[in-house]
Amino acid sequence: MSKYYLVSKRLQGDPRFKAIEERDREEVFQDFIDKLGEQEREAKRATAQKRIEQLIHEYEIDESAGIDTRWSEMVEIMEAKKHSVPVYAEAEPIDKLTAFEEYVKDLEREDFQAKKQERRRRERKNREKFAALMEALFKARLANQRTKWRDLVNGIKQKFWPQGTNQALLKIAQEGIVRHPAYLDLIGQPGSTPSEYFEDRVKEEK
What we know:
The chain is mostly helical. The chain is built from ten helices and no strands.
């Protein structure tokens, strides 16, 4: 016998049941069952997700675990203290593993973002250092609008230099910037190239 048959027998005297056309009653009943089933499944999913979030929290607060921790190592860590962590002791194995996978993904995202920010800071400092070097050479009149980029890189060859020139800057101009850290650090990173920074500084002189 179908569930509908049993329910219809119990509800046959109910005016609300009678108010529904007889040909529509089973369809209405099935819609109700489908909706109820979906609500139950959603409740189970929500409960499982909450349990997984609690497990992730337990993984996160353990100071001995980190981004390089393997699943087998995490199991050993948690098994050793499961009596004091009821959510772990009561969780299904699949939930424990799912929580661990999400925990690792979160750490990897955080690590990626941290490295990305650090790289951007480093690249910005490299740009600032090279721009400062160009500014210093131009202000000291060791480079000007007639200076060629290749000469600045390989060393400017001239007999006379401005009097009172800073000796450290003079050495850079004479030997070229080809081995200078500010030049080497900027090579290969995204954004403007060293020669483009130089050309921009030359334009300021015109």
